[in-house]
Amino acid sequence: MAQVRNIVILTGAGVSAESGIDTFRAGANGGPSLWEQHRVDDVATPEGFARDPDLVLRFYDMRRAAIQTKAPNAAHEALARLDAEWPKDANHELLIVTQNVDDLHERAGAKRVLHMHGEHLNAWCTACDARSRWTGPLIERPPCPRCGERALRPDVVWFGEMPYEMDRIYEALRGADLFVSIGTSGAVYPAAGLVRNARDLGIATLELNLERSQGSAWFGETRLGPASVLVPAWVDEVLAAL
Ligand code: APR
């Protein structure tokens, strides 16, 4: 493997699948997929929330409770090892951009994580804009710890809303020499477009996924298999080439 110094990693639901968290779309793994069981318009849009806030709050309360019963898998642990062992000097950079709203990267020990689609364990106050760490339910409309208004919603980016920190992601990509996509179907933009941005910038691109993603043709290299196997092997390679 050519030596790399500056890596941007994009992760998706596939990286948490082996921890027992449902992916969004059905795929080769054949497991239950979240968007087959729920209408996206009902539970993952601002309009759905305005129409039936109880339904939406209950849905996210269940998801928030569920992720706290799950544990990181070998893929999260390998990325945390990469983060810990990646040099922290001016010549090296690493950013793990995740679409996942679970906290399994952090619980595995990764530090350089950016949640572009928000976090289950945050509540966002629509009155004062504060984000608060939140592990319990929101259905009873608890007051915002900062302003006291009962205006908390899940801090999760819904369809039709802008993902977080896109400027920081594009900036990291501009300095990268390798873009790696792990466990994402490539169905949801702008995350799905990052591989094309990377290609336009002349950056090497690698896909690690159970099956070919929708944007698979854009990647310079694709490795197919479970993240718990592919990611530790790739991390070994990239650290050995340091
Ligand atoms: N190892 C590697 N990849 C896997 C595994 C596994 N064990 N299990 C499933 N996958 C792959 C699937 O083959 C699929 O390509 O992970 C991908 C999961 O795709 P999605 O369910 O579409 O998840 P994701 O790409 O993260 O979804 C993007 O869609 O609904 C929104 O906001 C939500 O962040 C989410 C976004």
Structure report:
This protein has 242 residues and is α/β, with parallel strands linked by helices. It folds into 2 domains: 1-19 and 72-117 and 163-242, Rossmann fold; 22-69 and 119-156, 2-Layer Sandwich (SIR2/SIRT2 'Small Domain'). The protein contains 10 helices and 9 strands. It has helices at 14-17, 34-37, 40-43, 46-51, 53-67, 74-85, 104-108, 166-174, 194-200, 227-240, and strands spanning 6-11, 93-98, 113-115, 118-125, 131-133, 152-156, 178-182, 204-209, 221-224. The strands form 2 sheets. It has a 6-stranded parallel beta sheet, sandwiched between helices. A hairpin with a 5-residue loop joins β4 and β5. The radius of gyration is 18 Å and the shape is globular. 39% of the residues are buried. The structure holds adenosine-5-diphosphoribose. Residues 12-14, 17-18, 23-25, 27-29, 99, 117, 183-185, 187-188, 209-211, 213, 226-227 line the site of adenosine-5-diphosphoribose. Adenosine-5-diphosphoribose (APR) is lined by residues 12-14, 17-18, 23-25, 27-29, 99, 117, 183-185, 187-188, 209-211, 213, 226-227.
Please render the helix and strand layout as text:
Elements: E1 6-11, H1 14-17, H2 34-37, H3 40-43, H4 46-51, H5 53-67, H6 74-85, E2 93-98, H7 104-108, E3 113-115, E4 118-125, E5 131-133, E6 152-156, H8 166-174, E7 178-182, H9 194-200, E8 204-209, E9 221-224, H10 227-240
Parallel strand pairs: 1-2, 1-7, 2-3, 7-8, 8-9
Antiparallel strand pairs: 4-5, 4-6
The protein binds adenosine-5-diphosphoribose (APR).
